[in-house]
Amino acid sequence: MNGGRITSDEKSTVSTYIGLIVVTALVVGGIYFFILSQKETKQVIGFDPKLPIPSDSSLRRRLKAEAYHVVRENGTQMPFQNEFWNNERPGLYVDVINNEPLFTSADKYDAGLGMPTFTKPISDDLLVETLDASHDMQRIEVRAKRSNAHLGHVFPEPRAASGKRYTLNSAAFRFIPVDQMKLEHYEAYLPLVETKPAAP
User: Which CATH superfamily hosts domain 56-193?
Assistant: First the structure.
């Protein structure tokens, strides 16, 4: 400083320090928000019944828009234009909200409807069936009991041993291929997918 005046060199030094502080703050803030978003969007492996069901705001951030529309707004996907309608791989279909196993490939068959169709769930206790009178129709809606996710509809099917046909939305599920089931902690369900009964 010369006679109470700040020289250009001193101004440059002060500007450099301020710039470094601002850049450091931005980097630290960016890392913090990146870690926070990773925690929010990180996919949970396996199913833990003790975990609370995520809030709707959390699901809006985590799920694809179509999946959120299906499970929380009772949406329906287009036939033949959804992920699992023609999936023939052995594996497990888990609730997209909380990863609870609901259906297996052993009970899936091609009903010619362009939607994933099953003869039965892993257990009837996992689902809730309610009357759906929307769109001027009388149907039975199927929801996951624990997460309250809208899955699709169930119809009478005399040819099936269960007497039912579950016609569901792909977006309501995450598919775990049989070779990934042990890795994702679903090994207890392996016997359910190893054999495929005949379709109705």
Answer: Peptide methionine sulfoxide reductase. (2.170.150.20)
